[in-house]
Write a structure and sequence with these properties.
The protein is an all-alpha fold. The protein contains 3 helices and 2 strands. It has a domain of 50 residues. Strands 1-2 form a two-stranded antiparallel sheet. The longest helix is centred in the N-terminal third of the chain and has 33 residues. It is elongated and about 65 Å long. It starts with 29 loop residues before the first helix and ends in a 21-residue tail after the last strand. This is Regulating synaptic membrane exocytosis protein 1.
């Protein structure tokens, strides 16, 4: 009794045939060919980086534990890559901007804010939105049922 998948389950996946080095691009314009070639070059670079990283991981795993001691780390200090340092600096700058923006909005009255004080997504036109009689926060109709009191109990109430 045999089936289409075999007596012991499905066949193992076969290795797909290797892709052609370059596909036929003769029907494309020169600009389109350049774009596709640039994408293929980037893909090849990424694959090479990935292979290099995997080789490094395998090589590091093969090293004895004595090679990874802090004593040896002092002899060869790890220098972060310039790209990583640049990403970190841009992240710090973004956090700084967000902090400054938050400080600016702290001075505003809560009912002057043009967006919902709970979800921060819904924008209000003049005179729209509900104002909580407890905390004076303006909120939209979707968030009205989810306003919680400031006390320790988590009762959700609507304060219209």
């Amino acid at each position: 009794m045999s089936s289409a998948v075999g007596p012991r389950g499905p066949r193992p996946p076969t290795v797909p045939p290797p892709m052609q080095e370059l596909p036929d691009l003769s029907h494309l314009t020169e600009e389109e060919r350049n774009i596709i070639m640039a994408v293929m070059d980037r893909q090849k670079e990424e694959e090479e980086k990935e292979e290099a990283m995997l080789k490094c991981v395998v090589r590091d795993m093969a090293k004895p534990a004595a090679c990874k001691t802090p004593r040896n780390a002092e002899n060869q200090p790890h220098q972060p890559s310039p790209r990583l340092h640049q990403q970190f600096e841009s992240y710090k700058e973004q956090v700084r901007k967000i902090g400054e923006e938050a400080r600016r909005y702290q001075g505003e009255h809560k009912d002057d804010a043009p967006t919902c004080g709970i979800c921060h997504k819904t924008k209000f036109a003049d005179g729209c939105g509900h104002l909580c009689s407890y905390c004076r926060t303006k909120f939209c109709a979707r968030c009205g049922g989810r306003v919680s009191l400031r006390s320790n109990n988590e009762d959700k109430v609507v304060m219209w």
